[in-house]
Specification:
The chain is α+β, with helices and mostly antiparallel strands. It has one domain. 27% of the residues lie in helices and 22% in strands. The protein is built from 4 helices and 10 strands; from the N terminus they run αβββαββαβββββα. The protein is globular.
Amino acid sequence: MKKNFLKFLLAVSASAIVSHIQAAQPTYSNMDALLGFRVTSGTGATLDGIIDLGSVTQFNHTFTLSLGNIGAYMSANWGSDWYTRLDTTGTVTTTGTTAVQWAVVAGDIFTNTLWSTRDPGTQPTPWDKQFSQGAGSSAIDSVGSRYQTETIAAGTNNAVVQTASVANSWASFQPSPPNGANYAGSFQMWNPTDEASTSTVVPFDMMTESSGPGTTLGFFSWAADGSVTFTVVPEPSTYAMVGSGSVLLGALMFLRRRRAVRP
């Protein structure tokens, strides 16, 4: 009798632990970079997704992020053709754009410094800084707060699936989302949008609260298997080292040639 009771308690405890793990909620911190996307047509068009990439302070070198099985997460919720499926609704005006539209953003609610990707095809130069960026940092913080109420998707480290029509969803701060156009630009800051198609390599800009063009820190790329890679822009000193090295190499080659033609 006691053995059966102990087995019952162990089974209940194990079930509770599994349920807790399955229902784990993500955390969001100020200045975390959020990779978000909305879906304009096809499978999962009423949903959007967010993946917390971690603090923007880490994006000072080239690396592939550890996010779990994002490819399986995407296929399970947005279809096996999520990476190549084209938009058919006309809400994304550029011909040949994919139904999945993505971007990476971050904000600092204390300084109103902003970070965002851009589609180089529609925004070839860095986003401009603005004297007042509070609306953008507040919007990103609202999305982050909402993100924390969701459940981490199975097989991922911290990716979530959202209903696109809920308040403060990722889609609610994008132009012409599935639940209707709310703003003229992404997060009330980037017009017409900071979004791009899945295969687009997107520059990642930083904008302090001032004026003039922002600074491109690097580039994000999203592969068909779901992996996300950040490629850093070399520091000016690196360019200088490369340049001086090229000059030195050229000089050495010139001297060798002169010696080779001497009688």
